């Protein structure tokens, strides 16, 4: 599988109409690209809103493919955290899981927070935001 894993920052900025995020996500939707998320992004996306109370948010999320957090994804995420810890660098578990999902699906990770993903073997597309 390939496609695009959308980081939570991208989901939130799309929902808020922030550019260039909104335009890029619409391009991907129009191109019928496979847009992937997992339970991490779903939980973070709805952290500020109860599911079912915002039809626009719900409709957007319904267009995305929810991927399972499998054993290989979890073990790769653990390895990312371990390898970075050896370098005295910290990687949060949610970010490690999102990165591992991108790697195991051969997808491009689309994010506005590149610094949250200091992992050399994933492909990242940066949309505005922080370097």
Description:
The chain has 131 residues and is of the alpha/beta class. Helices cover 47% and strands 17% of the residues. It has helices at residues 8-16, 21-30, 39-45, 55-62, 71-86, 93-104; strands at 4-6, 35-37, 65-66, 108-113, 123-130. Strands 3-2-1-4-5 form a five-stranded parallel beta sheet, sandwiched between helices. Helix 1 (8-16) packs across helix 2 (21-30), helix 1 packs parallel to helix 3 and helix 5 packs across helix 6 (93-104). The radius of gyration is 14 Å and the shape is globular. The mean pLDDT is 93.
SSE arrangement:
Blueprint lengths: L3 E3 L1 H9 L4 H10 L4 E3 L1 H7 L9 H8 L2 E2 L4 H16 L6 H12 L3 E6 L9 E8 L1
Parallel strand pairs: 1-2, 1-4, 2-3, 4-5
Spell out the key features of this protein:
131 residues, alpha/beta, 5 strands, 17% strand
């Amino acid at each position: 599988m390939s496609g695009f894993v959308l980081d939570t920052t991208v989901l939130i900025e799309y929902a808020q109409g922030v550019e260039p995020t909104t335009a890029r996500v619409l391009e991907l939707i129009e191109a019928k690209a496979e847009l992937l998320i997992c339970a991490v992004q779903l939980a973070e996306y709805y952290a500020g809103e109860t599911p079912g109370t915002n039809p626009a948010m719900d409709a957007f999320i319904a267009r995305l493919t929810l991927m399972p957090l499998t054993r290989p994804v979890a073990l790769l995420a653990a390895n990312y955290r371990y390898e970075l810890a050896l370098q005295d660098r910290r990687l949060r578990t949610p970010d490690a899981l999102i990165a591992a999902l991108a790697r195991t699906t051969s997808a491009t990770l689309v994010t506005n927070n590149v610094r949250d993903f200091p992992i050399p073997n994933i492909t990242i597309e940066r949309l505005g935001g922080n370097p």
